[in-house]
Each structure stands twice: as C-alpha cells, then as structure tokens.
Hints:
This protein has one helix at 89-98, and strands spanning 19-24, 36-38, 48-49, 52-58, 64-71, 74-77, 106-113, 121-132, 146-162, 165-170. The protein is mainly β. It has a single domain (17-50, 67-170), classed as Pnp Oxidase, Chain A. The longest helix has 10 residues, at 89-98. The radius of gyration is 19 Å and the shape is globular. The model has no long low-confidence stretch (mean pLDDT 92).
Amino acid sequence: MAEQFSLKExxxxxxxxxxxxxxxxxxxxxxxxxxxxxIGRDNDELSMELSPSTETTKNVWDESDVQDNGYEPSMSVxxxxxxxxxxxxxxxxxxxxxxxxxxxxxxxxxEVLIDKTEGPFDAWTEECIVKPQSYGGGxxxxxxxxxxxxxxxxxxGTVTIEEGKPVFAEAEAE
Length: 174
C-alpha cells in the first residue's frame, strides 16, 4: 500500500490518514537524527486527547472569571500488537517488562498534518513519555497498548519526505 503524503488536488475534507504521528524508536532525546516509527497500524481510531483544563469562578456580583490552565494532552495507542520486526518493539517490550520509569521512557514524537497538495508539510516535534498500560491480550495476538504523553518543548516546523521517510526542519524563530 502506497504511503499518502499529499492532499489530492481539489479535495477540501481531510481524511484521517492526512494526520500522521511518529515516535523516535531510538528513545534518544539527545541526538539530532531520528528513527521515526509511524504509529497506528492496528488502530481504527487514534486521537491526541487535549484534555483542556479551565476553572470558572463566580463572585458575589454574579461576575464570572475563567482561568485557563492549559492542556494535558495524551494519546492512547490501543491496541498495539507486538511485532518483533517493528523498530519500536524492543523498547516498548523493555519499558513494560522491566517497569522502566522517567527518562528511560522518554523519546520524541512527530506530528505531521498533510493539508497541502505537496510538501513541505506543517509538523511539530515534542519530547514525550511512552508508557505501556498493560500487556497480554486475547487470541488476536500479544498486545502492549501504550500511552504517549507530550512533555513540552514543542517545536513547529515542516516535514519533507525523503526516500519515503519524514525529515523534520524546525521553523526559524520569529
């Protein structure tokens, strides 16, 4: 199946396949080259839940004040079928089976929105924590569903496709 890295001419409604999420399978946030693994092969739904946080208070004059506390985004990759040839499998297995925590679970995620007929496409990178939620599953296969939680340091840029792989270029500061 051919990878879809463009929006067809004359199309205005984006298909779900126009939003792609990758995580760096090397789990090395110190380097500048990435081993991008595209997530979602086993999923018929995959969303970044933003979980916005606001508080509304009302004073004695019936005036309302809304406090915007930002977002607590996360993405649940469930199911994730373990495939020993997937570049991400060894690290997901290690995190789950060794009960790793903290920086051992940290990597970089890449989000690409394909809303143009040709690249470069808008993209964002961000450090994230990858945490398996369980392992095992039913007769369909061994699963290790995991949650991706962005950590901050979000950077906007663009992605071009070189030899079938995304290449991220950070936007210049304005």
